[in-house]
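bis(5'-nucleosyl)-tetraphosphatase (symmetrical): structure tokens wanted.
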Amino acid sequence: MIAPVLTLHAHPTAWTGWEERVRLMVRPRRFEHVVRVAELAAQIAAANGLDVARAYAAGILHDVARDLPDAELLRLAPPECEIDGLHPLALHGRAGRSLLERWGYADPVVLEAVEDHTTGPRGGNGVAQAVYIADVSEPGRGVNADIRELALQDLTAALERAIISKVSYLQGKGITVHPRTLRSYHALPCCAHLAASCPPAEPVTSSAFR
Ligand SMILES: [Fe+2]
Ligand SMILES: [Fe+2]
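Answer:
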């Protein structure tokens, strides 16, 4: 059992405005998810000696573009690969970053966490790692409780478990792994030596992305 997710009040007062912006951008159920992700990301950050305020902020902001129509996602985040063009939902992390930058948000650590939350964090950004794990394991999802509990003890181990199981699942289904997810996979300490062995390209389904 883990402790109940914290309700964090330590973040700057200025966050109230950003929370309201996100609330207006997403469906009500999505906003409930967003708050749970922010609270869990903050809890994971605290347990792993990371920046709690930034983790909370990135959790609040991570899905700001999640409910935008495909055309708007494509406008904010032009496709980088075939998967992006076929499944614009995969773009909502990058589109969220683009939107926030247009609004004047400038914290690079948080922006990177927002950008990478769909496909996986690149190496070295612990806030992005906390948000990625919180997104896939917040209690409202009803899955990945093991990853959530592990992240409160060892974030690196939780990240390895989450990304390896995602890549293995997609490969097992014959679904192309997004190049950015592969980048995260190869950035894992345990998988860096596999960088030369990428999975074969196959059609992808939108269910591959969160
Ligand atoms: Fe998302
Ligand atoms: Fe999310």
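The chain has eleven helices and no strands. The two ends are 25 Å apart (CA to CA).

Cheers.
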